[in-house]
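Thread: ABC transporter ATP-binding protein, structure

OP (GT): Posting the sequence first so everyone is looking at the same thing. Length is 329 residues per the record. Can we get the structure tokens written out before standup tomorrow? I want them in the notebook alongside the other entries.
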Amino acid sequence: MMMIDTEELTKTYNGRGGCRGITLQVPEGCIFGLLGPNGAGKSTFVKMLAGLHRPDSGRATMLGRPLGRAEARQELGYLPELFRYQDWLTPAEVLRFHGQLGGLRPQETRASAFRSRVRDTLELVGLSEAADRRVGGFSKGMQQRLGLAAALLLDPKLVILDEPASALDPIGRYEIRSLLKQLRGRGVTIFLNTHLLEDVEELCDEAAFLYDGELLASGPLQELLSGTGDNAGGSANWRFRLGGWLPETWEELSSAVGGAPPSLLRLVEADKSGNTLLTARVTDREQAGYLCSLFIRTGLTLYESGPEPNSLEAWFLRMARSRQGGVPL
Ligand SMILES: Nc1ncnc2c1ncn2[C@@H]1O[C@H](COP(=O)(O)OP(=O)(O)OP(=O)(O)O)[C@@H](O)[C@H]1O
């Protein structure tokens, strides 16, 4: 079953920003990463799933039920991006309050079964020792762990986490990663909105990339990185470090190619002294070699040429830059 299934889901703010026409599927039991630069529309999308924004148009189901219905949210755990708990509460009191928000009656949240559930959840997120302290004295990382505890309290089948590790130190991030893997092992589906690409690389089975409100790619992470997916975004697979780049070099290269086989060259970086990094989609080493000879003929210095590492950061930058324009050769 798809835990999240959206079709052309759209939400804008008076016609601007937000996200538009998002069609994506999140399979059961996976960790799914939602990626994209600042302002891409990720939080808007997540807020529609969490029921905080009503879509302008489109259709969606969550946990097999139509989005927007209270039943669709019953088995959902949600950690919002910016949250703050009342300073005077203890973690146990915060969780009791969340238990009631989740539909438990006040007497149920006083029962020993619920109290032991609270203890277990605080232990799971590493907050046992702070269980009786006031939240007002918590560090940002501790607050984030408590937010995670609130999301996990009622044993959700689907957890949506909006930047769950942004305030955590490296040890805290390692612990949260282990926790998320443990949850996946128990069959919980996790939808992660994060800027921490190492976390996505290590954790996620599937991912989607939003840019300027639109979905540019989605699917199994390895397929996206290797550029073999149906919608992998025409990713580049070869890189060239060059010197002697001048403003007119693009034109010179274009006129030098004539009727050469088509390939897409993109300027990734360029500094004032003419040092550049280019990437290209090539079909084989011969084509890469041809481009090397072309650069040399055009008077450039070739410092380095080789397959692009399949890192998520490189993919992220390629995806973003594919929207900022490239020069077809
Ligand atoms: N409440 C709002 N009113 C008006 N515009 C908004 C509102 N919330 C978001 N936007 C706009 O919608 C676009 C998408 O914003 P959103 O917060 O969804 O992006 P994001 O990908 O989550 O960004 P970030 O990574 O910075 O959190 C942005 O242009 C933003 O300015």
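GT: Both are above now. Quick notes for whoever picks this up: The radius of gyration is 24 Å. Residues 238-328 form a domain with the Alpha-Beta Plaits fold (CATH 3.30.70).
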